[in-house]
């Protein structure tokens, strides 16, 4: 007869939720349910390993950047197996150690199974074990969305879950997708020496970005890969070597061949696999768990966080939400709200992209008044050092009445770090002229491009100095 | 008989002061006096060209960084002449165009001569021309300090003014100095392939930095060059090929030989060359023009800014002071003060160093209570991508009572950009816990090392979340 147990707290998912139980929870009985790899998407197949592939890709491209600056470098080879083994030799033990730590916890019981709700605050594991809990945290994450195409079931393909563990570097690869996952892997594999064909439905890559950024990124990537925009996937099949893919594009149908097919067509939240309706938790039209500002679902005591409930699908958002849920579990009478006002993101491709706040298109559509300030890296002293030619920019939107930033969009080197003072300004309500002139910007650091973009905003009321 | 003229404003120096006359000065008669290269130190021999040499040096060192990450790169060669010609092919025309622009200005007269004061608000140029003015701006900059050594007058040597224009890359070089100029050129030349011997008086390099940073930097540089600490220069002479240099060190005297001798032993302000006592302007014990908070000297209407009056000797400080002087010239009845509270600086060597505020030693000496938070790049996700091994850190000092930052000291990749949110926090009085948790930090961007250092500060009163 299946076991049944009651705990104070049941955590579903070992990613961000795993950071919740600290010493303040030592007298709580806790169940931690994880059916997949321990540690979640970010650690195992997401942010962290991808960046460990991206940096070597940046290095592999150094020769083409260095040549015009007078430095002759030759890329001899990228040792795929060594890259891969460095990444997973580092990550897999972290996952294993995290699992071991929890398995040995006195007050935490780890269940390595999938689970579904079978009643009100009642969860059933695959082996039949039932868990009831005073509180649940649903942090079951998201999974790769698989594109549909005739014959796909019989075609070998990779996703971001698997492609980083390939036994060897493919000579050629078809990547399907136009978002950040496709953009990062197109950079990685093309830099490593794989011939990449990138198939995207849209007229541009990274279409969620400000159109200026999306356009500049698309142009840059188009110089590096065989870029097929406005192409849809029709059919796939196994070929003698690798795969064949039928696509339809503006110029009619075409058949592409490659060693490897990588599907990078987005991620979907895992809430649909939990039978959440049995416990009174609802999903929105896109399949995300609906939560209030305290990260609480419609069912009191059931919280959700991270990819399963956040359209952002970003680890830094999940971490923030985990801290909010942690607080709210400990202080049910003094809950705090999560802050989703200024959520930045970055695309670690080449060029790098980082963004926070409204795009120009969003501001326009929402009828929000704005002014634009834009500066090219090339116009700064450090840009001269880098040999910048004008492709990389910082674009800012501000409210002309208050000078407060509405959005910041960067494409170029170190975008993901350079954006931080702008996130800080938005989060703390600092007006653009004050941010520009109320602090020193080291000359000639790369950050001057941000200072100059702030000064390029056509705002009145610049501070006296 | 020498000409004599009276103007509304006389600017001495064409560096930062040259940014003062904008359209608001169109009805002022202005004299601009410059005896050296037009455009000042930063543009011609300082910040800008040096960084244009540093970036290729960073690129030249990519192979040793990339190898352990699985990317095999070979440095074939650094084309010295191409590096040099790219730099000065870019900079020299800017200097020339700047000069032409001013020479053609309707209301500005450019005097290409050295000048000295000969009386109250009365300047005499080398050709005897005398200029009197209602207002002066002394922005005559600084010059290279030449170390003293027997025989130096008869020995060929380079300084930062000349070394970037060498006809060819030297096979070997002795650099004398332990500050930022020596540190940057030691990086540049050793990366380009020159055998560098670095002779420094102190027990460490970059001794003005926090001792932790200085020590880490010294260790890193010691692996790249023949580092002679606690060595003093005794004598120099021309050798059959290049130079011979006698030094005295802890183990006694030694004679070093190299193709080129580079003296990088600091800079001194040019106020001593202006006979400022004739016009009632005083110098401090270190030779800097004494100014008040409005950048005004003891003589009303005579302002000074930049290296000639600022111990910082930093271009971003000079720029700030130029804006202050500009305002104060235009609004003599509503002068503003310059802000020297949180002046950051960076050393663009390898590793890069950036700093703002108090070092731990300064805080200790001044009896200021502080706590320390320190985080290694290696402990962050991006640090894993970079293959960091623990040498590079962010070290923060904060006031335990208020949580306000007292100092920030970074050594590692992109230090000069990563420091910006910390400068911002200090300049706007934002407490460390708020800066850490009151905004999102993109995961896994390099900036997370800053977030983590903020969180590593042992401060109570962390915000609720």
Automatic annotation (TrEMBL), chains A, B:
Its cofactor is FAD. SUPFAM superfamilies: FAD/NAD(P)-binding domain, FAD/NAD-linked reductases, dimerisation (C-terminal) domain. This is Mycothione reductase. PROSITE patterns: PYRIDINE_REDOX_1 (PS00076). Residues 27-321 form the FAD/NAD(P)-binding domain. InterPro entries: FAD/NAD-bd_sf, FAD/NAD-binding_dom, FAD/NAD-linked_Rdtase_dimer_sf, Pyr_nuc-diS_OxRdtase, Pyr_nucl-diS_OxRdtase_dimer, Pyr_OxRdtase_I_AS. It holds the Pfam family Pyr_redox_dim. It comes from the Bacteria. It comes from Microlunatus aurantiacus. Residues 343-453 form the Pyridine nucleotide-disulphide oxidoreductase dimerisation domain. Belongs to the class-I pyridine nucleotide-disulfide oxidoreductase family.
């Amino acid at each position: 007869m299946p076991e049944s147990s009651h705990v104070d707290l049941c955590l579903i998912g070992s990613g961000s939720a795993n950071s919740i139980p600290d010493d303040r929870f030592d007298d709580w009985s806790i169940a931690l349910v994880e059916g997949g790899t321990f540690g979640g998407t970010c650690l195992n197949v997401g942010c962290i390993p991808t960046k460990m592939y991206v940096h070597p890709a940046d290095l592999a491209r150094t020769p083409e950047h260095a040549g015009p600056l007078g430095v002759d470098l030759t890329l001899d080879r990228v040792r795929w197996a060594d890259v891969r083994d460095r990444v997973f030799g580092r990550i897999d033990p972290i996952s294993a150690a995290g699992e071991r730590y929890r398995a040995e916890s006195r007050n935490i019981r780890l269940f390595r199974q999938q689970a579904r709700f079978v009643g009100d605050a009642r969860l059933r594991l695959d082996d039949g074990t039932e868990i009831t809990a005073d509180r649940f945290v649903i942090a079951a994450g998201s999974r790769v969305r698989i594109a549909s195409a005739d014959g796909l079931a019989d075609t070998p393909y990779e996703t971001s879950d698997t492609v980083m563990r390939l036994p060897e570097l493919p000579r050629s690869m078809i990547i399907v997708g136009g978002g950040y996952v496709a953009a990062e892997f197109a950079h990685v594999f093309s830099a490593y020496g794989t011939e990449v064909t990138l198939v995207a439905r849209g007229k541009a890559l990274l279409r969620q970005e400000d159109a200026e950024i999306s356009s500049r990124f698309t142009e840059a990537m188009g110089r590096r890969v065989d870029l097929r925009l406005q192409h849809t996937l029709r059919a796939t099949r196994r070929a003698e070597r690798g795969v064949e893919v039928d696509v339809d594009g503006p110029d009619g149908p075409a058949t592409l061949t490659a060693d490897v097919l990588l599907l990078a067509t987005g991620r979907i939240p895992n809430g649909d696999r939990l039978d959440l309706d049995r416990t009174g938790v609802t999903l929105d039209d896109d399949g995300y768990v609906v939560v209030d500002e305290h990260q609480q679902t419609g069912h009191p005591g059931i919280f959700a966080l991270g990819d399963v409930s956040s359209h952002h699908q970003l680890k830094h958002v999940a971490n923030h939400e985990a801290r909010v849920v942690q607080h709210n579990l400990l202080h049910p009478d003094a809950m705090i709200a999560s802050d989703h006002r200024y959520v930045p993101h970055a695309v670690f491709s080449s060029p790098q992209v980082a963004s926070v706040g409204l795009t120009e298109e969003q501001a326009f559509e929402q009828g929000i008044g704005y002014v634009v300030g834009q500066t090219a890296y090339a116009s700064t002293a450090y840009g001269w050092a880098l040999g910048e030619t004008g492709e990389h920019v910082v674009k800012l939107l501000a409210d002309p009445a208050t000078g407060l930033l509405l959005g910041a969009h960067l494409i170029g080197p170190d975008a993901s770090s350079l954006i931080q003072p702008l996130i800080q300004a938005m989060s703390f309500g600092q007006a653009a002229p004050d941010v520009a002139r109320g602090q020193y910007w080291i000359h000639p650091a790369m950050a001057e491009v941000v200072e100059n973009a702030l000064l390029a905003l056509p705002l009145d009321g610049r501070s006296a100095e």
